[in-house]
Amino acid sequence: MVPVRLASSMATVLLAHEKFPHRAKTAVSILRYADDDVVAVLDRANAGRSVHDFLPDVQNAPIVSGMDEVEACDELIIGIAPIGGGFEDSWRADVRTALERGCDVTAGLHSFLNDDEEFRELADEHGCELTDVRNPPDDLGVSEGRAGEVDAEVILTVGTDCSVGKMTVARELYEAARERGEDAAFVPTGQTGIMIEGWGNPIDRVVSDFTAGAVEEMVLERGDHDYLFVEGQASIVHPAYSAVTCGILHGAMPDELVLCHEAGRETIHGYEHIEIPPLPTYVERYESFAEPVHETEVVAGALNTRSLETDEGARSAVGAYTEALDVPATDLLRFGPEGVLEAVL
Amino acid sequence: MVPVRLASSMATVLLAHEKFPHRAKTAVSILRYADDDVVAVLDRANAGRSVHDFLPDVQNAPIVSGMDEVEACDELIIGIAPIGGGFEDSWRADVRTALERGCDVTAGLHSFLNDDEEFRELADEHGCELTDVRNPPDDLGVSEGRAGEVDAEVILTVGTDCSVGKMTVARELYEAARERGEDAAFVPTGQTGIMIEGWGNPIDRVVSDFTAGAVEEMVLERGDHDYLFVEGQASIVHPAYSAVTCGILHGAMPDELVLCHEAGRETIHGYEHIEIPPLPTYVERYESFAEPVHETEVVAGALNTRSLETDEGARSAVGAYTEALDVPATDLLRFGPEGVLEAVL
Predict the structure, then answer these.
(1) Alpha-carbon distance B3 to nearest alpha carbon in chain A (angstroms)
(2) Which of A186, B174, B212, B260 has its CA 20 to 30 A from that of A203?
(3) Cross-referenced Gene3D superfamilies, in alphabetical order (chains A, B) (predicted)?
């Protein structure tokens, strides 16, 4: 676990071709939470528009079709992560241009920039850093089952599927707790959280024997805060990624869970032959899975209502979600984090 | 997934210092199941004795204190895997001697022989192969949730803890099915199974995002047999390794489970602060975890009674285990695999 990038006010460009905003969660979260000064978003499908056309509540930036149209920047961040986490060749020209202009390039992909010969040569030639935040440190080990010993109240976000808002909800709660004057810290477990915080172990890229251990290490390291908000990953019912979810759940030994869901989602994204089970069963699934290692409780729900146009529709969906889980719930971005924060602190 | 070693009748030495036989499961399984001709076991704590003093039902070999006492061999296998999977320096002299005498060396550790400069130089100098069976191939990817499509009946062994007999039970059932003339295959997921079969993905060493995918790949590859016996790993309640268990369970999409347990085990081995939950809850835990991805059922139980001296005591423990699970159960090594095989086929 090492600092991976300077999370400071750099002039940053976010690559999000054909995915902005709804399939570009890294880009959107950097716009929302990071200290970076975002000078442009690259999305050839939305060139000419601006971030605020889609997301009025984050920092604004022009959307352009490629690095050629960006005047000056310090860093290009790959702001999308396709299923499988590979580098797509249609991004190559932008990365090449960035490096030729002396910009650092940062990615959270499974395939590493540093393994690409052309990029390595260009980076050497132009004095740039290539940072792969998903490349875990070499010194990870197995969990000792000790995260439960920390003084902090550990709160983990868990989900019904991928891309429902676990990072966002953990981040919103963390920031809201700090605004209230609470002594809180954020434990990042994925590329986006790591980019925002500037440190962390990329749990989905860790050797599976060390999954829990890599989370435990971070919880022990930050355990002297009063509250730790741990970013969860994937879902306990996910056909491909449940190992990551389960390793985090046993490794972090959380005291409380916040269950995240997206309104209207009925099947696992990308695995449409697999249905999302009834919502109340998730409470039972997560609690009973955790229990032999460390008892925990779903204390609140977070519903992502981005697909619902009206606040009225969103409110009604939140009502149904609250009833299904039988705990306080809201859409933290749409209606504010207060209700859920109360349930958590 | 590639062939990793010639699983043939080599003159093999098994290193198992201070762990033979009860904490040397790789060594014991090679003695029991592999085609290797084992010429010696290295265990300085038991030098002068023989394998049959401890295990009368596997191939016999003398136990000696080090490679110096071995006359001739083709291959040295590290037959123990400590928690964490590191290489212990007290084994170095034996590996060095083996290489100097032209023997290949094979290990299933997390730390790779091929990363050790001294071993690499000696291997080059003496024309030996260093094989790390726990080094996964580079081309693994995420699961597509498709293992359920194979024609084969997929049977997975699952456990209450590590080292309770999941590999052994899968292997016994596979061999017994073949003896009956059934068209069966074995899917190895750990270092021991891979050493015996000569191929396979070491699931506990795979990137956690690819855990399920690396199992799915093997099931799809062997799916044209009538029965696939998949070696499970660790346990759904294990504080460090549950990610591996869960990735295999969702990746293999098994039709049937055999729940393995060791008589008398009350806490998680190496994590004595964590109790083994009541046995019937494991049936519910495994079935309900698997269900959203692929429905499955615990159809039989396997009880490891090695700690019980008398057959009478073992029979009584098996009776209690059968009652707790409410499915047919036995100790397959002690009483034969038939009862459980019937329940599975």
Answers:
(1) 21
(2) B260
(3) NAD(P)-binding Rossmann-like Domain (3.40.50.720), P-loop containing nucleotide triphosphate hydrolases (3.40.50.300)
Residue of B nearest to A240 (CA): B143
**pLDDT the model gives residue B74:** 95
CA–CA dist A74, A301 (Å, integer)? 39
Q: Which residues in chain B touch residue A191, judged by CB atoms under 8 angstroms apart?
A: none
User: Does A11-132 match A147-344 in CATH topology?
Assistant: yes
Contact B227, B183 (CB under 8 A): yes
Tell whether A143 lies on the interface with B, counting CB pairs under 8 A: yes
Contact A205 B208 (CB under 8 A): yes
Residue that the structure tokens 């990038």 belong to: A5
pLDDT at B3: 61
CATH of domain A147-344: 3.40.50.300
Instruction: Say which CATH class A11-132 falls into.
Output: alpha beta
Alpha-carbon distance of B105 to B123, in angstroms, equals: 9
Cβ–Cβ below 8 Å for A277 and B292: yes
CA distances, A119 to each of A84, A129, A299, A312 (Å)? 21, 10, 46, 49
Residue of A209, A211, A216 for testing the chain B interface, max B β-carbons within 10 Å: A209
Q: Which residues contact A209 (CB under 8 A, 6 or more apart)?
A: A142, B85, B110, B204, B205, B240, B241, B243, B244
Partner-chain contact A205 B207, CB within 8 Å: yes
Residue ranges covered by each domain of chain A: 11-132, 147-344
Rounded CA gap, A233 and A252, in Å? 12
